[in-house]
Amino acid sequence: MAGDALAADGCRHFPQAAAPALVTALAAGTDAGKPGARLACADAFVGTALAAMVPIAQQCQPGARPVRAVLFDKSPDHNWFVPWHQDRTIAVQRRVDMAGFGPWSIKDGQPHVEPPFALLARMLTLRLHLDDCPADNAPLQVALGSHHRRVAAGDAASIAAGCAQLTCLAAAGDIWAYATPIVHRSERALRPSRRRVLQIDFSPDDLPGGLEFLP
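and the corresponding C-alpha cells:
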C-alpha cells in the first residue's frame, strides 16, 4: 500500500479532493430519510463520486477497484454510536465454502464472509465527506497502526487504548483514506447536524474459487 502515512499509521488525509460542484451534486442526491444505505458500485451516484475517488485509490493501492459502497447520513434524528471495532468481512454475490474463508453471515440480505487477513490487509477504504465534520459532529476516530493484524471483536477497545489515536476532522470535499482493517469508532455527535459520508472499499484482488465481490 503506497504512502508512508497510510502504510505506517493506516490512514491519510486528502483535503478538498472533490470539487465543490461535485460535492453539491452528490449532496443533492441523498435521501434524508435513510441513516445508512448500501449502494451498488455500478450505481450512478457512486459513479459520480468515483471521479474524485479512483485517482486517490490508484495512488494509494495501484490496481484497486471499488467492491463495496455505503452512504452514511448522521443527523439529529439518526445520531448513533459505533464502538471500537475492525471491519473484517466482505460482501459477496453467493456463498462458496472454501478454506480460509469464514465465518459467514447475512447482512441486508447479502452473504458476507471473513476472508484471509492477507486479502483485508491489501484493501483500501475511502470516505468522501459531503458535509463539514468538526470535532462535535461525530468524526471517525482511528487507532494508528492497528491495521497490521486481525483483531478479535472483544479485543478492539484494548488494542485502541494501546495505540495513538487520531480524530479525523474533515471539511466537505475532503477524502480520508484508510487501510480497511484499521480499528476505528464513531461517537454520537455532541451538536448533531447532517454528516453525510460516502464510504467505498477498494480491492486490487480477485476472489478465489468462484467467490465474487458484489457488483
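(Above: one complete record from the training split.) Helices lie at 4-9, 20-28, 44-60, 117-121, 156-161.
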